[in-house]
Inverse folding.
């Protein structure tokens, strides 16, 4: 079913088991993401081992996580060893987003330029807080944490791997 040349990305981590039918409790890396619900095939890897492919027989949201049942592993005894596994899916199975939205993984590695300070570095991580998403940027100014809010994000060029921002005074330590 899978083609080895297809690009995979990590969508979550198996944090537990739910019920006797072997539902894996997957914590998405992006808290509100439903991407895993669209996967026709998933890949699990634990402890740096090679990824193994599985076909989901059931996926559903449950208390901030996603419950994932795998074909042929529909009993708790068959999935206990999968807790702690990283969960991957194909990029090609991601749902399309509206024009002004993007996936976090698309931003990682992009260069960030501020209107006043010029290049401030490269995006190394994106994470969520109670208020909004945050871009972690590393560069000549050290670590800069940029809230993902319309007032600061001027332009996102995914193809050019560039993000233009207009940061308020004090956010960049000179």
């Amino acid at each position: 079913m899978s083609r080895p040349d297809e690009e995979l990305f990590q969508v979550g981590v198996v944090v537990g088991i739910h019920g006797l039918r072997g539902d894996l409790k997957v914590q998405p890396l992006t808290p509100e993401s439903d991407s895993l619900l669209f996967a026709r095939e998933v890949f699990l890897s634990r402890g740096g081992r090679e990824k193994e492919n599985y076909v989901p027989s059931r996926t559903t949201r449950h208390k901030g996580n996603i419950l994932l049942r795998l074909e042929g592993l529909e009993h708790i005894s068959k999935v206990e060893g999968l807790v702690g596994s990283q969960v991957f899916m194909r990029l090609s199975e991601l749902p399309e987003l509206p024009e002004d939205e993007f996936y976090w993984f698309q931003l990682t590695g992009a260069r960030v330029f501020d209107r006043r300070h010029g290049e401030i570095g490269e995006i190394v991580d994106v994470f969520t807080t109670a208020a909004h998403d945050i871009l972690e940027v590393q560069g000549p100014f050290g670590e800069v944490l940029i809230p993902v809010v319309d007032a600061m994000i001027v332009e996102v060029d995914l193809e050019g791997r560039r993000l233009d921002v207009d940061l308020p005074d004090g956010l960049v330590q000179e």
Q: What stands out?
A: Confidence is low (pLDDT under 50) at residues 1-5. The chain is about 5% helix and 45% strand. Helices lie at 76-79, 104-107. The first helix runs from residue 76 to 79.
